[in-house]
Amino acid sequence: MSIRVVLVDDQALVRTGFRMILDETGDIDVVGEAGDGAAALDVVARVKPDVVLMDIRMPGVDGIEATRRVRALPAPPKVLILTTFDLDEYVFSGLRAGANGFLLKDTLAVDLVAAVRVVVSGEAVAAPTVTRRLIAHFVSSAPPPPRPTGRLAALTPRELEVLTLIALGRSNAEIALELHLSEGTVKTHIGRILSKLGLRDRVQAVILGYEAGLVRP
Question: Which of 56, 144, 159, 174 is nearest to 104 (CA)?
């Protein structure tokens, strides 16, 4: 079954370039396009894609608000934020709004294709080091939020260990190796962590790990 993608960008040439790359894969179909956030919501509701590639800076409804609305839909598609800058403060807002990751607009074609495939599998996307750097940068420069100690109290000691390693950017395999667990057990722990803390994915877990002080910028 092919992966259905919607492209959202106010620059037609950008959408055309991405469409050409994705349409050549054989397993990814571009099923819709939009030039702003409001149009994106209409397209997403109509074609029900698996993934939305979402620009941030657009007229009218911007990519942040569009991401928030898209991710609030029943059975929402994954959202990948597209940005020109890897330390764009809007990207951090997009991750908070529920985006599953972000990509630079000048990313290589092979990385774009890989990102679409990976995000559909349920993993958060973006180079882990870049994601950590982005989150660390904005958590360290923003006013400190209240420590979510009450939420963390719901975790078992083992789940807290796993959450800390997630915040450090460890993969499931690396967590399993470090804690002497099977990857299946790690996945179970992660599922429980996300459920207990009301988090959508690993990106939000990383953000929480920094904000809670489990990991220092």
Answer: 56
The CB-based long-range contact list for 212-215 (8 Å cut-off, 24+ gap) reads 212/147, 212/148, 212/149, 212/152, 213/147, 214/160, 214/163, 214/164, 214/167, 215/136, 215/164, 215/167, 215/168
Tokens of 160: 């807290």
Quick count: other Cβ atoms within 10 Å of Cβ 115? 23
Encoding tokens for residue 14? 């950008």
Residues 158, 114 share a domain: no
Determine the longest span between alpha carbons in the chain, in angstroms.
50
87 and 191 both lie in a single domain = no
Q: Which residues span the domain enclosing 172?
A: 146-211
Backbone angles phi, psi at 214, to 5 degrees: -65, -30
Q: What is the pLDDT of residues 96-141, one digit of tens each?
A: 788 888 888 888 888 889 889 888 877 655 545 555 566 666 556 5
Number of domains in the chain: 2
Structure tokens at 107: 């990313």
| pLDDT given at position 103 | 81
- pLDDT band at residue 87 using 50, 70 and 90 as cut-offs: low
pTM of the model as a whole: 0.70
